[in-house]
Design brief:
single chain; alpha/beta; 8-stranded mixed beta sheet; two-stranded parallel ribbon; about 40% helix
Amino acid sequence: MAKNVLITGGTGFIGKHLTDTLLDNGFTVSILSRSARENTSLITYYKWNLKTDYINEEAILQADYIIHLAGEGIVEKKWTKSRKKVILESRLKPIDLIFSILKKNNKTLDGFISSSAVGIYGAITSPEICTEATTPANDFLGVTCQEWEQTVDKISSLGIRTVKIRTGIVLGKNEGFLKKMSPNFKAGFGMILGTGKQYLPWIHIQDLCQIYLKALTDPEMHGAYNACVTDNTTNQTFSKTLANLYGYKIWLPKIPSFLLKIVLGEMSEAVLKGQRVSSEKIQKTGFQFQFTNLEQVLLNCLD
């Protein structure tokens, strides 16, 4: 009988691609949804409402694995005090609710796989190459990711294998990061942000889905893994490469850091700074990245 994977955030960019990957590999998929959706032969939708602390318990009880992707976008809105609270709670509350249901019903899982982010290393730019053993930063991104992962440890306390996927910028065809970036670049108005020296750890959506698949099927995987290509891409490199693929060289001046700070406030740190991140640990599991050349990946992802 096919194993079932329950996904939180399953209707988003990553969730949709991951669902296809899981179905292609013989799993059935369940998805927690805020709105009513029609089931298919391979996908079952269950209602949940974080505002009322409600999850249809059947979704948890019939799952063999759970993948936690849900969470409000980090750079969708300015980081006001209330927005920061929403960003954090949207990641932690689903885990708390799932933990309660698992514990109450003495339910076990073959694995609990949670999204995390390379933001755990902080909004800084330095020569250091961050590994999973690097101390988390004390800024908003670092603390958010640290609390996120610590909450996942509650699942581990039930004797369930847990894996945390620390993801970089995810690149997909007209989706995610590129969906926001491409229109200006395509129109000939590509620009470099700040100094352009900030690193931009990235991963192709197909490679990310394969990492999640490996995390499900490899019982030796547990703990945190960085999910990004280690190629030292900076904002300047990325921007110049993208502009070149659209047939021009960047002619507009760099957007000054102080201007981005005025417009974006504290959130500007997320785009003005970035660390190099090592992918050595995930590669030691036998995983091989299929998409490692930035120019070829961007070409693959553009119109």
